[in-house]
Design goal:
Elements (H helix, E strand, L loop, with lengths): L21 H18 L3 E2 L5 E3 H8 L4 H6 L1 E4 L6 E4 L4 H10 L8 E10 L11 E10 L4 H18 L4 E7 L3 H17 L6 H6 L16 H5 L10 H16 L5 E2 L11 E9 L7 E7 L3 H4 L7 E7 H10 L12 E4 L6 H13 L4 E3 L12 H10 L4 E4 L2 H5 L2 E6 L7 E5 L3 H4 L10
Parallel strand pairs: 1-5, 7-8, 12-13, 12-14
Antiparallel strand pairs: 2-4, 3-4, 5-6, 6-11, 7-9, 9-10, 10-11, 14-15, 15-16
Helix pairs in contact: 1-5, 5-9
Subunit structure: Homodimer.
Catalytic activity: tRNA(His) + L-histidine + ATP = L-histidyl-tRNA(His) + AMP + diphosphate + H(+)
Protein name: Histidine--tRNA ligase
Length: 438
């Protein structure tokens, strides 16, 4: 009796596999990040993917979109704890810093990279599992640190060869200033309630500042006439912002003031910023952040200032593809081992291990099926060429009997080849490395 065919299990919608060669591009990108962070003296931190739900409710704000609609939260069946897959990582970094008393001997510059989770409708550059890279400077109050983080992100665009990215800045002031502005906003929008959409009406008394960030074209005239936060910001906050912009100007960084830039999380104060492109449609923000001087205390630590940013890896990759930036990580083998007879495999493997130990990427031919056999020399050389390798290492019977192998060029157009001693593999390994990686 035939068994019914089992239904194929697929990935969760919006949670995507990262396959070669895209995964090689991700490795290339992460290498760029690690190198750049080291140059700015930022050190890596890794926090759990699952945190207590209260961390995000308290840290991000109960009336933010993330907490209200987008978090993957659940009750632990073993102990009843309320847990959440992290929707962002600033709160987790702050929790780790507080829990482990990392600020006891001064400020810390930290960075992270990894997956985040939000329950929303998947679309281009916006997925349910997505990846963020973030930089956080905790324990520093000066405007020069705000500028340093902006310069760090700006340096990354140059490293990647990305263009047409604009920097937008705003200052949100301090909580008392925002409270006064909030009251003015509520009074103003109440007078124009007939123009507000349902989302704006819902936010009116809980988080009116987010109304300024609305993309509804019918509301833009009313939003344009709303009280400006800048008119409520005190001199100290303006001086802080002025120093940030002077440092950026001194370094030739173009920026524009955007009074409607508020970011989506409650913990921000003073400087906020976004790097934006027009080449990704509605998902144009590829990096954003700002100062959050009250979050550490909110999560239970001693009051301490902080500032940081996060960038969406998928959106950066979308932009790299849009601008056809080359060099997205190529991990083809340097050499491909052609082994005509199976009895040669043990001795050939010793040579290949020596080459790999010398930094050479080597792929050994292996049949796809048990009944296929090793395949002819011609078919193996076709596989070698298709692999992208620069050279083929051929373990021919005559050469093998002499204790040698042939190294054949696959990329110079003439197929030049030379004979090398098996016992001297570590000596000729460097000749297998292409000039770009030697």
């Amino acid at each position: 009796m035939l068994q019914p065919k089992k239904e194929k299990i697929t990935s969760v919608k919006g949670m995507n596999d990262i396959l070669p060669p895209t995964s090689a591009g991700l490795e290339w990108f992460e290498e760029k990040i690690r190198d750049l962070m080291a140059r700015y003296a930022y050190r890596n931190i890794r926090t759990p993917i699952v945190e207590h739900t209260a961390l995000f409710v308290r840290g991000l704000g109960e009336v933010t979109d993330i907490v209200e609609k987008e978090m993957y939260s659940f009750e632990d069946r073993l102990n009843g704890e309320h847990l959440t897959l992290r929707p962002e990582n600033t709160a987790g970094v702050v929790r780790a810093v507080v829990e482990n008393s990392l600020l006891h001997d001064g400020g810390k510059r930290l960075y992270y990279m990894g997956p985040m989770f939000r329950h929303e409708r998947p679309q281009r550059g916006r997925y349910r599992q997505f990846h963020q890279i973030g930089a956080e400077a905790l324990g520093f109050s000066g405007a020069e640190i705000d500028a340093e983080l902006i310069l760090l992100a700006n340096a990354l665009w140059k490293e990647l060869g990305l263009k047409n990215i604009r920097l937008e800045l705003n200052t949100l002031g301090q909580p008392p200033e925002r409270t006064a502005h909030r009251a003015a906003l509520i009074a103003y929008f109440e007078k124009h309630a007939d123009v507000l959409d349902e989302d704006a009406k819902r936010r009116l008394h809980s988080n009116p500042l987010r109304i300024l960030d609305s993309k509804n074209p019918l509301m833009q005239p009313v939003i344009d006439g709303a009280p400006r936060l800048r008119d409520y910001v005190d001199d100290e906050s303006l001086k802080h912002f002025d120093l940030v912009t002077k440092i950026l100007d001194a370094n030739g960084v173009d920026w524009s003031f955007n009074p409607r830039l508020v970011r989506g999380l409650d913990y921000y104060n003073r400087t906020v910023f976004e790097f934006v492109t027009s080449e990704l449609g509605s998902q144009g923000t590829i990096c954003g952040g700002g100062r959050y001087d009250y979050l550490i205390e909110e999560i239970g630590g001693k009051p301490a200032p902080a500032v940081g940013w996060a960038m969406g890896v998928e959106r950066v990759f979308e932009l790299l593809n849009e601008q056809q930036v080359l060099g997205l990580g190529r991990h083809e083998p340097h050499a491909y081992a052609v082994v005509p007879d199976a009895h040669m495999i043990p001795a050939a493997s010793v040579v290949l291990e020596q080459l790999r130990g010398s930094g050479v990427r080597v792929q050994m031919h292996s049949p796809s099926g048990a009944s296929e056999g090793m395949g002819s020399m011609k078919s193996q050389l076709r596989r070698a060429d298709a692999s992208g390798a620069h050279s083929a290492i051929i373990f021919g019977a005559d050469e093998f009997a002499r204790g040698t192998c042939l190294v054949k060029s696959l990329r110079d157009g003439e197929g030049a080849q030379r004979e090398e001693r098996l016992a001297d593999a570590t000596l000729w390994a460097e000749h297998l490395l292409p000039p770009a990686t030697s």
